[in-house]
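Sample pair:
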Amino acid sequence: MKNNVIRYRKIRGLNRRKRAIEQWGDNRKSLNIELLNQEKRDYVKFRVQPWSRLPLGSSIYPEPTGDCKYLLIKNLQKIYQSWQDTLKDMQTPYYLQIWLYEEYISQSQVVCTIENYKDFYHNTFEPVDEQPKNGIRSSIHYNANTEKYLGCHSWQLSRHIEAYDMTDEDSREMVQETDPSKILRTETINGREHKIVEINKVWLIS
């Protein structure tokens, strides 16, 4: 609800959290080729406590900052590079991408698909019409520490959007509680009015 105040829980044991992020990256940098050949897709989400823990009541953990954010970005890049090397050796058509979320970086992922699933995520995000002049340098995640990992790619800013069916009461309530600047447009889908809402912005390697 708009009037609810979010309470942020303090994150303790930051050195332990940083070690856990590095371990997460090491554990997921090897692409599971057998699974990929079966499922034709694979992904890595940021599964590190406490950021992947379900919120308790009205309190949540803040997004990773400082060294924790740096290590998250570093390990996303490490996983991406390792998977890219493996996919090139497989000599098969593939899609490989980092989904670097701007507002909620803990939702970021590395995603890949192969063969007939290569275009599976083609319409997942909607490009922002006017790209920032400074590109990834305009991101809140870009700084002197992360430059090494973000500056080695060209990035495109896109939107993660959702369509809310205005004939559904719960969807109407969600839209009413949404920041008006996030409501992009109205579309008719299957004969029903939908509001297209921006959920988050995401950087994609272009």
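The longest strand covers residues 192-205.
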